[in-house]
């Protein structure tokens, strides 16, 4: 993910551009993590409860390795329709 200085926001607003989404990225350095069991436990619960899949991204084929992500509203609607 890129980092942009604060003044970029004013520049983009002055050109009439608007933010359409927030992007989040997380990095875990497994060598420094002391709570590996907790992370694994939370990941396992998330997989079961929310049908989440965690996998590495193939940057050479990013377009085909990424999948669309549902918004919370879309997720709830889909879940409701499956019942």
Tell me about this structure.
The chain has 83 residues and is mostly helical. The chain has one domain (7-82). It contains 4 helices and no strands. It is extended and about 45 Å long. The N and C termini lie far apart (37 Å). The mean pLDDT is 78.
Number of domains: 1
Order of helices and strands: HHHH
Largest beta-sheet characterization: none
Helix and strand composition category: mainly alpha
Number of β-strand runs: 0
- Which percent bin holds the helix content? 40-55%
Low-pLDDT stretches: none
Overall pLDDT metric:
78
Number of helices: 4
As a percent range, the share of strand residues is under 5%
Radius of gyration: 18 Å
Instruction: Tell me, briefly, the overall form.
Output: extended
Distance between the termini: 37 Å
